[in-house]
Automatic annotation (TrEMBL):
Keywords: Coiled coil, Hydrogen ion transport, Ion transport, Membrane, Transmembrane, Transmembrane helix, Transport. The chain crosses the membrane at residues 423-446, 467-485, 548-566, 586-603, 638-655, 759-780. It comes from Arabidopsis thaliana x Arabidopsis arenosa. This is V-type proton ATPase subunit a. Essential component of the vacuolar proton pump (V-ATPase), a multimeric enzyme that catalyzes the translocation of protons across the membranes. Required for assembly and activity of the V-ATPase.
């Protein structure tokens, strides 16, 4: 039998792959190459044998630090290239492998060059901005200055006139009064300061000047025609030219300090027109020279960034790989005396041959005199869980793993969820019109699969793309269930032939409410279209969907119990089969399996029996005659037997297993049977943190704890059988809600608007119907049905057999390195 099982093909999804704990003893000269080749293979998960050491105490901490510094420089180059708006496609030809030291020197030289160019460019840009501001001030301020001899001021903007009095006499005359009085003006001396300031600071700047000078100033402003680039942010800033007229040295000092505080740049503007023109020509000449210098510097900087950009992708990949290799080397124990590194890890059993070949190739390529020692170890701890998935099954496996990673080699719910999950979703979402919309979306994602897989998507789009096959199956099952419900945007169609009902009288005018009779065989597939709009439509569909929900729920819960049997059989736990699986199956099917049987018989016979009455009085009066509620001969004695079996199953679940475990424990330590001895001696070759060392010891047997645990488990199953069956009624509730919402939007929006002759009202009705269909029925209802199907699988189905206390197999693989690992 064992030979037959060994010849079977490897299981991809039913149970996780068989794992093996291996030990590697790698010579120092071939360690780096060996780890690199294992990273390319991606089938070995290393254990951290230096968990008690900090990152700075590990052997290769300096190399990791160097890789981190190179990653920083590469991110700097990438930011500079993006900031410059360059698109540097990587070279197509394969570049030779570059040593880490050479790459480090190249990156340092490139960074120094780029930083120096940035510094020079920033200084030149600052000088250019100052000259540009000076030119703008010269052009705008000259309009406020006519002649220094007459002190005439054109285009005045007077803010306010204010006098400050003390003890009844005027202390300070306003600037305007000084200007009107020539004698006083000559004594005080009228002066001005011109400059430029950011437009968003202008109002506060003007108010501060007014308060500091107590209103003894004239403030003139005009908007600049050109925007000026801020060298620190590279954003264009709108600025305003100002001229402040004042009197006195103290006012001048205050104004200059305020200008400095607000970041306003002040520039001297001569009052003589000739000097203004001469100064403007000089500024324009220097601006022209600076523009040419800036353009040349930008071209040189872009050329330097382009030369970096061609190799940037390869360099980033190289540095990430090197950092990952050294991080992995830090997980190995370094033996100075033997000049070798010792490591342990998990690998799938089928990968041992590949790993051995890779290590032999690494020894040959590194010209090492000593080969890598690779041997299998006996493990005490539980191995990691590894499922080989494809594009279709990966999304369903991720849904299961979101609840919990399967224990090593226990039954995998993802296999069954590939079918049951989209089907239960479709039961709640059944409408083949809406299903077609989902199908179009899924086909769009599949058609652009190759392109979207290489792009960086947003979080929502990435989620949709990752679940594209889930959406595809949900759409197909929704079309199937929609055809059964005979709903296309809530409208029934005669797809599979004519209705089985017709009007009793050809003169009846209200054929959908009265007078319908059955005149031929039932509608061949799905719900007869004549039910739509009839008086019994809602009771009929309610009864159909409610009973169907119970049948689907009992079937899926039985599937979960059957999987628990296969788990117990696989792990050799006969106690779980005898004292857990058998009583649970008896209890569940004695009550709810019997209810499912009654539903099927009622459908097949067309009986009018009240199933509520049958189930209630099965507990209240099991010996009472059923009367008209009897569905088959011998139903009453069968009910009594099933009720007795259900009552027997409860103590069967509760008591035997704890006492059986206690008996096994007592026999083991009284010498009647002997288990596998666990040696207390630790082999000297075993590493302190290895899976063999681990400090394994026999756990103390605590009968009270086991009994309480079994009690909780039994009560949970008994109560859960009722609550879980009721939970499956959400299939009926959400299906009904989806159907009624579709009907409301169709009849009360689209048909109502179409009843008007006004084309505008019709267009509004179509728009509202399309919006409601897209955002409420296709988005909100899809999300609702998705989450409810998720709950039914996580709780009602997986709760019957799934432990979910394993941990994922995370091999060292270059393909799994992400941007966040930097």
């Amino acid at each position: 039998m064992e030979e037959f099982l060994d010849k079977l093909p490897q299981m991809d999804l039913m149970r996780s792959e068989k794992m093996t704990l291996v030990q590697l003893i790698i010579p120092v000269e071939s360690a780096h190459r060996s780890i690199t080749y294992l990273g390319e293979l991606g089938l070995l998960q290393f254990r951290d044998l230096n968990a008690d050491k900090s990152p700075f105490q590990r052997t290769f901490a300096n190399q990791v630090k160097r890789c981190g510094e190179m990653s920083r420089k590469l991110r700097f180059f990438k930011d500079q290239i993006d900031k410059a708006g360059l698109r540097c496609s990587p070279r197509l030809e394969i570049e030779p492998d570059i040593a880490l030291g050479d790459l480090e020197r190249q990156l340092a030289d490139h960074e120094h060059e780029v930083l120096e160019m940035n510094s020079n460019s920033e200084k030149l840009r600052q000088t250019y901005n100052e000259l540009l501001e000076f030119k703008i001030v010269l052009e705008k301020a000259s309009g406020f200055l006519v002649s220094s001899n007459t002190h005439a001021i054109g285009e005045e903007i007077e803010l306010h006139e204010s006098t400050y009095s003390n003890n009844g006499f005027i202390e300070t005359a306003s600037l305007l009064e000084q200007e009107m009085n020539p004698g006083h003006s000559n004594q005080s001396g009228l002066r001005f300061i011109s400059g430029i300031i950011n437009k968003d600071k202008l109002l506060k700047f003007e108010r501060m000047l007014f308060r500091a000078t107590r209103g003894n100033m004239l403030f003139n402003q005009t908007t600049s025609d050109e925007e000026i680039m801020d060298p620190s942010t590279s954003e264009m800033v709108e600025k305003v030219v100002f001229v402040v007229f004042f009197s006195g040295e103290q006012a001048r000092t205050k104004i200059l300090k305020i200008c400095e505080a607000f970041g306003a740049n002040c520039y001297p503007v001569p009052e003589d027109t000739t000097k203004q023109r001469q100064l403007t020509r000089e500024v324009l000449s220097r601006l022209s020279d600076l523009e040419a210098t800036l353009d040349a510097g930008t071209r040189h900087r872009n050329n330097a960034l382009n030369s970096v950009g061609y190799s940037l992708t390869n360099w980033i990949t190289t540095v990430r790989r090197e950092k990952a290799v050294y991080d992995t080397l830090n997980m190995l124990n370094f033996d100075v005396t033997k000049k070798c590194l010792v490591g342990e890890g998990w690998c799938p059993t089928f990968a041992k041959t590949q790993i051995h070949e890779v290590l032999q190739r690494a020894t040959f390529d590194s010209s090492s005199q000593v080969g890598v020692i690779f041997h299998v170890m006996q493990a005490v701890e539980s191995p990691p869980t590894y499922f080989r998935t494809n594009k279709l099954t990966n999304a369903f496996q991720e849904i299961i793993d979101a609840y919990g990673v399967a224990r090593y080699q226990e039954a995998n719910p993802a296999v069954y969820s590939v079918v049951t999950y989209p089907f239960l979703f479709a039961v709640m979402f059944g409408d083949w019109g809406h299903g077609l919309c989902l199908l179009l979306g899924a086909l769009y994602l599949l058609a652009r699969e190759r392109k979207l897989s290489t792009q960086k998507l947003g979080s929502f789009m990435e989620m949709l793309f990752g679940g594209r096959y889930v959406i595809l199956l949900m759409a197909l099952f929704s079309i199937y269930c929609g055809l059964i419900y005979n709903e296309f945007f809530s409208v029934p169609f005669h797809i599979f032939g004519g209705s089985a009902y017709k009007c009793r009288d050809t003169t009846c005018s209200d054929a959908y409410t009265v007078g319908l009779i059955k005149y031929r065989d039932p509608y061949p597939f799905g719900v007869d279209p004549s039910w739509r709009g009839s008086r019994t439509e809602l009771p009929y569909l309610n009864s159909l969907k409610m009973k169907m929900s119970i049948l689907l729920g009992i079937a899926q819960m039985n599937l979960g119990l059957i999987l628990s049997f296969f788990n117990a059989r696989f792990f050799g736990s006969s106690l779980d089969i005898r004292y857990q699986f058998i009583p649970q199956m008896i209890f569940l099917n004695s009550l709810f399996g019997y209810l499912s049987l009654l539903i099927i018989i009622k459908w097949c016979t067309g009986s009018q029996a009240d199933l509520y009455h049958v189930m209630i009085y099965m507990f209240l009066s099991p010996t009472e005659e059923l009367g008209e509620n009897e569905l088959f001969w011998g139903q009453r004695p069968l009910q009594i037997v099933l009720l007795l079996l259900a009552f027997i199953a409860v103590p069967w679940m509760l008591f035997p297993k704890p006492f059986a475990l206690r008996k096994i424990h007592m026999e083991r330590f009284q010498g009647r049977t002997y288990g596998v001895l666990v040696s207390s001696e630790v082999d000297l070759d075993v590493e302190p943190d290895s899976a063999r060392g681990g400090g394994h010891h026999e756990e103390e047997f605590n009968f009270s704890e086991i009994f309480v645990h079994q009690l909780i488990h039994s009560i949970e199953f008994v109560l859960g059988s009722v609550s879980n069956t009721a939970s499956y009624l959400r299939l009926w509730a959400l299906s009904l809600a989806h159907s009624e919402l579709s009907t409301v939007f169709y009849e009360k929006v689209l048909l109502l608007a179409w009843g008007y002759e006004n084309i505008l009202i019709r267009l509004i009705g179509v728009a509202v119907f399309a919006f409601a269909t897209a955002f409420i029925l296709l988005m909100m209802e899809t999300l609702s049905a998705f989450l409810h199907a998720l709950r039914l699988h996580w709780v009602e189905f997986m709760g019957k057999f799934f432990n979910g206390d394993g941990y994922k197999f995370k091999p060292f693989s270059f393909a799994l390195i992400s941007d966040d690992d930097e």
